[in-house]
Amino acid sequence: MALLVVRGLRVRYPGAQEDALRGVDLELAPGEFVCVLGPSGAGKSTLIRCINRLVEPASGQIIWDGHDAMRLKGAHLLAYRRQIGMIFQEFHLVDRLPVLANVLMGRFGYVSPWQAAIGRYGPQEVAWARQALARVGLAGYELRRARDLSGGQRQRVAIARALVQRPRLMLGDEPVSNLDPVTARAIMALLAEINRRDGLTMLINLHSVDLARAFATRVIGLSRGQVAFDGPPSRVDRSVLEQVYGTAG
Length: 249
Hints:
alpha/beta, Rossmann fold
């Protein structure tokens, strides 16, 4: 059974002349590592943000574990979002706070508003946060300020924050675009290792064709809001790049 099914997803932003997504269909099986390629404006970020309900589509279906995620509201929507981790291009850390406090923000959806507001977490949450930091290679960094970290370390903290949610799906919106090539490859290798060892399903937007070929188990190419390619990395050749980008580069 598919973990996630998207059918006929269509989005148009206010004032836009064209749809950002034009009838996108895709399915994700548990344990896949899927990279989404496409030029700027192809709809990659919109797709990711529709899946976690940050953007509401004009039409289409999002089926999560056999249930209609488009109908979810209130506590049911919160429970859905808890199952989906998110990592961003800009990291979205609170620079003045210690690393451990940033990671614990991944537990916001599990604690009461007053606990979240004062940063009060139980010993189990703290243990999970420490485990997540060790998982991404940052054991011993708990008390360092986020502002003092390198870009690669900051993204590792963001991954740990997502992991502490204990998600079933990890979404990444260009998570390595702000990193140098060596660091970007290391972060992708970390995500791939988490995918293999933990079975955590990944859907990651990328600009780098080489990284998608190296780490994905499947590649989806978006072009002008539509799926132009869906298949294994081994099939991402010159003709596929022409379909997706309009040029082989």
